[in-house]
Amino acid sequence: MSNASSNIPDDITKTEKAAIKVAEPAQQDRREAAALEEGKTVGIPFCENPKFQLRNVEVSYGDTPAIRNISLDIARNEVIAFIGPSGCGKSTFLRCLNRMNDSIESCSVRGSLLLDGEDIYDPRRDVVELRARVGMVFQKPNPFPKSIYDNVAYGPRIHGLANRKSDLDDIVEGSLRKAGLWEEVKDRLDATATGMSGGQQQRLCIARAIAVSPEVILMDEPCSALDPIATAKVEELIAEMSESYTIVIVTHSMQQAARVSHRTAYFHLGHLVEVNETNRLFTAPEHELTESYITGRFG
Amino acid sequence: MQTANLLPLVLILAAVAFWLSFQRSRAVAAPLGGVRHLKALPTHYAARAALWSAIPGLVLLGLWAGFEGKVIHSIVMASLPEGMAPDSAGQASLLFTQISNVARGSLNPDLAPEAVVQAAALLENLREQSRVFKTVLVILVTVLGAAFAWFRVAPHVNARNSVETTLRRIFFVCAAVAVLTTMGIVFSVIFETIRFFGRVPITEFLFGTSWSPQTALRPDQVGADGAFGVIPLFTGTLLISVIALLVAVPTGLLSAIYLSEYAGKRARSVIKPLLELLAGIPTVVYGFFAALTVAPFIRDLAESIGLTASSQSALAAGLVMGIMIIPFVSSLSDDVINAVPQSLRDGSLALGATQSETMKKVIFPAALPGIMGGILLAASRAIGETMIVVMAAGLAANLTANPLESVTTVTVQIATLLVGDQEFNSAKTLSAFALGMLLFIVTLILNVIALKVVRKYREQYE
Lengths: 299, 462
What we know:
The complex is a heterodimer of chains A (299) and B (462).
Chain A: H1 2-22, H2 26-38, E1 42-43, E2 52-61, E3 64-74, E4 79-83, H3 90-96, E5 107-115, E6 118-119, H4 127-133, E7 134-137, H5 148-158, H6 165-178, H7 182-185, H8 198-210, E8 216-220, H9 228-241, E9 246-250, H10 254-260, E10 263-268, E11 271-277, H11 278-283, H12 288-294
Parallel strand pairs in A: 1-11, 4-9, 4-10, 7-8, 8-9
Antiparallel strand pairs in A: 2-3, 2-5, 5-6, 10-11
Chain B: H1 3-32, H2 42-79, H3 89-104, H4 114-151, H5 159-199, H6 202-207, E1 211-212, E2 227-228, H7 231-262, H8 265-280, H9 283-304, H10 314-339, H11 342-350, H12 355-384, H13 387-392, H14 410-418, H15 427-457
């Protein structure tokens, strides 16, 4: 827990330094600072009838602010990508959406975060139910050291989704099919999941998340530990899943954001700088910080 | 010079060799333009000199200490005239004791036979010579080694490799010492055990249901025939160990789970050291706690509900022993639970599992091999524990499964058999070795099982 709180300030100062080093003219430096000071997000951060309505969200680890006054809507069945340099707060922000930050003692979240109009951080809120609705896939594939079947069946069993064995079998098969894994593993469902390749493990984790029929799937750099072929498969999967789920994906790969997402949000030092249609953000960014980032001037 | 004086002298010489070679390597390096033109660092040359001087000296010293006595002994015994030659090992040792007593001056030479006095003079003479030779040789070897290493300090000589090789061998010797010691212990026990089985048949020992280890001085003595059946001892051991594990495993495991998953930093920093303190309490203190507090309490409690209980009971010993071994279970389990990757916890929590579901279904199975290891360690400890049982469960070898009766264990019997003055030739004393052997085999089997379990599950995650 403690390393989370100590890492973040570290990363921020590193990025700050990098940003300052690259923007050599002092004048530009001031312009960037001014742009951030405004705290206004350019582009189209809001939409009608959103899945998530997030207003004035501030997150800090102890005394170190990680997210400063961010407001954003996430639409139903959209794929939204969060990009930005390391330590910009995009993962922190993502983890607010299903309260995975709860287990970090020093982490505090302020502001209004609504899922379908209901407060995510309401103290009376049932976190179990929230996480059943908002699933998550992590950076490193983390299958449980159990069989492939048990991995997928884990969530349905916990939530009592299947009354009979045959129901459970159906859920497992359906989830593995949706994750594009069924053909590869149908003959070895009892094999241990840790023996699969990295790409298969990550798709298994996606199948595991799908198995509880969530409405939203959060993905925290889901392809960063995978090779290009496995990455292509996961991206394909994201495209298919966007028909039935709302997907929020954090990625370090701008190409990936461009390939899979409808909208892209650019984070910088805890600020949400710009949110725009993905095409527009990568071709004609409105904010100069976004432009600097996507043209590779820093990050 | 005495060995006790030679040992530090050798070390001092080695230190001098270290310093001289260090200086020389710097001196050699200086005209070349610095230490980096040497094949190795000055400390390597110096360490090599120290090793080359100390090791031969120490080895020689060790050999001398090991063989000096035997060589002198055989020379002295051979020098005795025909008529004095002893005809049994016992007589020989008696005679040699007499000779060395005369030599030391603790026996008046006037009272000893002429041959003994002469042998004593020879002994004294040989010892003196040996001392002189030893001193000269050890110092010579040490100095020669140092000198050789000193001359071999040269830019093209790579002392680094020879230091590494020597160190590797030293480490190997240290590891071998541990193994050899274990083997020595095993063999010493095996031989006595075989002698025991020469007197008591092995089947009677393994399958006998009565334990009363005594051997008669006269054939017509009352209760002359002893009984050497280990079953009551092993059931006693088993009973107490099971009670102890029934206390320690749930308590230890659940407290480990609390500490690693639920407790806040502050609670953890207070509770964990306190829990580990339990392991530091001397067993004899646990013993009187068990005997004076727990056992009477259990007796009174049992009587109040109409049961008869002995004032020394397996239950009392087992309960207190269980408390003693809690830290073995909790500390190891805590470590392995903490070693389970956070990503597995996150994965489970993100699926909507509660903390306890995560614990039960993901963390616990992943940590199971380590937890098993802790439990088996605790079990070995419980089986080997003696003092608590002596004080709280008694010495009577009852074959019973009733925890309210007094029982005894294998280790307690070993202790009582060997405490005090014992004749070393009776089945009674030898049975202690057979018990030790059996206990050793049982714990060995437990350890093998533990290793198997751990190996089987080791690669579960990652």
